[in-house]
Amino acid sequence: MDPNYLQSLHEVLAQALLSDAKLINSVSFPDDLILPSFSWLFQAMAQLNQVYYKTPECIKALCIILANPVDPPVRVLAAQEMRQRILKNNGKQWSLLPRTERESIKSNLLGLVQMETSEFARRAAAQVVAAVAAYELSHSSWPQLIPFVTRICCYGNVLDRKVGIYLCSHVLEVTMDGIEDHVDGLLTLFEKLLVDPRSLETRIITVRAVGALASHIDDFACIQKLLPMIFKVISQSVLSQDIGDVEQVFDALETLIILEVPMGEHVSDLATSLLEYSVNRSAGTEIRVLALSTLNLLIRSKTSKIESKSMIERVLTDLMPITAKPQSVYDNEISRSALQSIEGLFVSLPPCQVYPIFHSLIKMYTPSPDPLHRRAVMIVLGVSVEGCSEFMTPYMPEVWSFIERCLQEPDLGVRKATCETVSRLSVWLEDECASRHSTLIPALVNLIHNHDTQLLACSTLDGLLDISGEISDQCLQLAIEQLSCLLDTAPLTVIAIVIGAIGRAAGAVKGRFLPFLVPLMHRLEPFLTLTREGEDADIRAITMEAIGLFAEAVGKENFQPYFHGMMKQAFEGIDIDNLKESSFGFFASMARVFGKEFAVHLPNVVPPLLATCEESERDEEVSNFSGASVESEESDNVVHVTSGIVVEKQIAADTIGTLFSATREHFLPYIERCVLVLVSLLPHPYDGVRKNATESLLKIVRTFCALGKPEEWRPGSFMPALDQNMKDLISHTFRLLLHRYERETDESVVYSLFVGFAKAIYKIGPGFIEGRVEQLCSIAIQVLNQEAWCQKDSDQDGAQEHRADDGFMLVSSAGDVVAALASVIGPEFAPAFNTFYPSIAKYYTKDHSRRYRSFAVGCLANIVSSIKSAVTSHSNDLFQLFLCALKDPEAEVLSEAAFGIGALIEYSEDDLSSQYPTILTALWPLFDVTPSTPAGRLNARDNATGVIARMILQNHAAVPLDQVMPVFIRALPLQRSYHENEAVFRAIFHLFRTCPAEAHPYIGKLLKVFMHVLDSNGPEHQLTDSTRRDLVILVNALHGQSPQEMQEAGFAVFSIG
């Protein structure tokens, strides 16, 4: 080795260290605002890469520097650099060294590791040995390594054993090549070293080695017997309070948990130990956080071992107090970690096992005079909602009472926690929150004028107003007026939330927003002219989005005065950073509102949309340092910067589809290029872009078909003729999207694909599914059976799958496709239904979530309605399932079950009249409603009324009309499920035709119902045209028979002739 080369390399390494030290020292002073020059470091690294690291000789030179006992910091750096050279390009430089030199270096490294007195140098050298082993063992060219390691691990000297296990650990972390035959011997060695009597460090490194070995093997039985010893070492390391040691053992433990090493009866003891570490305030923040993190992983991974009542209670009672003590930054970190573990209970375990225990703690904590207890309960209540929302409904009266008290608490912490919990409830329990608008909104309005609670209260109002479709006019006015007051005085962060909240309120209440339009447009005008980057630009974008929602709420006639001015603002935004996507979104809103009138703007709108979709996302290549190309051991690729262009592409792709569906034939000059651009986005790396491109392509297909004005399709074999261009577009698009499905890894993209397929099937009918039924059935069954490519990465085991709503939207969309196919194919879908029935019905079990149960019942009910008499062979199975579902605790499921059993009564060729008493007994509780009954329960009552109507139509003689008619008539008029009016009025017509004596006692009540549904000022879509005609005929007949009663009912004002 050239001594000059060696000396100069040493000097450059020293220079790099000196530069780095100067850099560190210069930024250690908070008052020093001038960053030091990086030039020294750049020069040193550039010189290393460009001069010394070009040939394999550098590895030999670095090894010599590492072995030199002089200048330990340079030795450590030499080891690090040597390791990088060896690993780079899969050991390319290392392999170019002569074999004799490689053998010499290997021998020297082992001797150095064993004899080295400097701890840092020894560890650095051990990492080099592991890097060499990654290459040599894969080429079967270092058979001496593992015997050497195991031999020194058995020496009597403590340092030798520590060095040996340290080497072993590092080697196992990089490779298993050539070690397969040594597994049994290593396990025997680990069993001894885990109880090494003289060195805790040896025991700790052994735990790390066990974790590394576990990553390479499939049979974990050999690891199981080591678990008690590993847990004991973990306890010893926690007692030592050396954070480095604790991190090592917890990392290894988490590896074992992630690898699903069976822990059996040890899980409960491990969980108990982790809880003890977590609550031990003398253990130190970092150790407590590590213990909580591991506990969280254990809870989510070993659910069946954690779900005992005593363990759930222990976790909640031990961790809840921690959540309420944010006395410092460190305590906040512990509180967050404790909350994550508690949340793990709620989302991973069956809510019926967790929530009752928590609710008993609510009762215990809420009377406490200590506000920290109430705050703890409220915080945990917030994290419980995601996993337990479906199970909470029976408990909600008590919960609401607690929440409403806490919103008026004198303690600031309690009020803030309550706001956050209400925000979560508004996401997961929409109907419950909507039913409490009259109390929640005034309470939150009181908090928005308090500086300490303003931000949180406004954010909570934002969530509530998003679900305010049925909010009272009084509450709506209070919320809008009070939020508007903040536009002049609040900080920009609050103003942004306020504007968004008002926009979402407009989207929810629709036409009822009109009284607020003019004053708000005036108030928001200043925000449309903000041009500075940062918060100003964000508020301008949010304002554009809100005004778009205003327009969609009030309609084009009312928004017309603002249209051209707002379009000008949107066009200006295209050229301003961070405003382009808001402009695109505004164009979509305006197109939905103004329809074909928007077409005049297409020449100015479409080009920037296409340009954005085609824009490159890669900025100029940048290296790690300016002026030097510093190589990374992980990758030789340069760094590419991806900008916010992906978000703009996502919005642009969505807007293209909206523009075509709104402007229709006016968009045709742009359609070919738009389709090509959208197709090019299907394989985009960002899922949001793929999702919107998929949705827009299918929207284009539906719109293009509608423009052709095809003959209306009918269920069965009738197929309206489609234009050849339409057929080509369907064929081309379907093929591309099916190809995308087979490779798609994101569930949300496949969900959008399936929803789009279902809409296209309903819209286009047989023309869309011709020649594609088998493929559509195949992909639907894959998703229903959790076998799609995008579902294969799920790490939930089968036991956990039914406990959460993960994947529900995708499964539900597959059901939509099946129901759509059944609606088009009709009774001929029966053979396919034989396949689909078990794959759908399996989601109705007590262990599945409310949404899964509702999906299963609703999907089957829709299929029954489509295949009609062909359902007969499944009548018994479906009857039992629907009857069971009529006992479900959830209103949403009850509603679907009532609809399903009604459809079965109507269409099955089996005579179900013998089951009428059983059905009526199951239906009876659904008629027990009050003025405050939630909407979901009213839906169920309406559908139950439809069941009775179908029973009357099928066999009124089997219905005890003397008992049923009072209940049936009292349930009218229907309040929610207007589609059931068809069956209801057919039953009424039937009674008047076949047994008028049964109907006449209720004529006064029925006339009021008739007047309600015929009132032109009443709710829309209560009756179809044919039912309305038949009802008018009946009313005319009754008018001739009982003119006095008709007059008293108010029918004189109707023109019914």
UniProtKB/TrEMBL annotation:
<dbReference type="Pfam" id="PF25780">
    <property type="entry name" value="TPR_IPO5"/>
</dbReference>
<dbReference type="GO" id="GO:0006606">
    <property type="term" value="P:protein import into nucleus"/>
</dbReference>
<protein>
    <recommendedName>
        <fullName>Importin N-terminal domain-containing protein</fullName>
    </recommendedName>
</protein>
<feature type="repeat" description="HEAT">
    <location>
        <begin position="524"/>
        <end position="562"/>
    </location>
</feature>
<feature type="domain" description="Importin N-terminal">
    <location>
        <begin position="44"/>
        <end position="115"/>
    </location>
</feature>
<dbReference type="GO" id="GO:0005737">
    <property type="term" value="C:cytoplasm"/>
</dbReference>
<dbReference type="Pfam" id="PF03810">
    <property type="entry name" value="IBN_N"/>
</dbReference>
<dbReference type="InterPro" id="IPR057672">
    <property type="entry name" value="TPR_IPO4/5"/>
</dbReference>
<dbReference type="InterPro" id="IPR021133">
    <property type="entry name" value="HEAT_type_2"/>
</dbReference>
<dbReference type="InterPro" id="IPR040122">
    <property type="entry name" value="Importin_beta"/>
</dbReference>
<dbReference type="InterPro" id="IPR001494">
    <property type="entry name" value="Importin-beta_N"/>
</dbReference>
<keyword id="KW-0813">Transport</keyword>
<keyword id="KW-0653">Protein transport</keyword>
<keyword id="KW-0539">Nucleus</keyword>
<keyword id="KW-0677">Repeat</keyword>
<keyword id="KW-0963">Cytoplasm</keyword>
<dbReference type="InterPro" id="IPR011989">
    <property type="entry name" value="ARM-like"/>
</dbReference>
<dbReference type="GO" id="GO:0031267">
    <property type="term" value="F:small GTPase binding"/>
</dbReference>
<dbReference type="InterPro" id="IPR016024">
    <property type="entry name" value="ARM-type_fold"/>
</dbReference>
